[in-house]
Amino acid sequence: MPGVTRHIRGDGMDTVLVGGGAFLLAAGAVFLAIDKIGKSQMAERRKRLVIYALLGALIALTISIFHWHRAVYLAASA
Q1: Domain residues of the chain, as ranges?
Q2: How far is residue 21's CA from residue 9's CA, in Å, rounded to a whole number?
Q3: pLDDT score, position 1
Q4: pLDDT value at position 75?
Q5: CB contact at 8 A, 55 and 30
Q6: What single-letter DSSP state applies at residue 1?
Q7: pLDDT of 20-74, one tens digit each?
Q8: CB 55, CB 26: distance < 8 Å
Q9: Could you give the angle at the alpha carbon of 41 between the alpha carbons of 39 and 47, nearest 5°?
Q10: What is the 3-state secondary structure (H, E, C) of 33-52?
Q11: Is the pLDDT of residue 78 over 80?
Q12: How distant, in Å, are the alpha carbons of 2, 19, 29, 75 from that of 6?
C-alpha cells in the first residue's frame, strides 16, 4: 500500500500546483485588466459591468479548478 499512497499524493500535488499556477496567472491578468479599465475613457456603468464580468470569470475559474482537483483526487482514491 505505500506505493498507492505515494501515487495519490503525487496526483493531488500536481493538480494543486497546476491549478494554483493557473489561478495566479489568471488573477494577475484580471487585476491588470481592471487597472487598465479603471484608467480608460469608458462610461462608468460599462466599466463596472466589465469589471464584474472579469471577477465573475475569475470566480468561475476558481470553482472549476477546485472541481478538477476533487475529480482527480476521487479518481485516484477509488
Answers
A1: 2-77
A2: 18
A3: 47
A4: 87
A5: yes
A6: -
A7: 999 999 999 999 999 999 999 999 999 999 999 999 999 999 999 999 999 988 8
A8: no
A9: 75
A10: HHHHHHHCCCCHHHHHHHHH
A11: no
A12: 6, 20, 34, 14
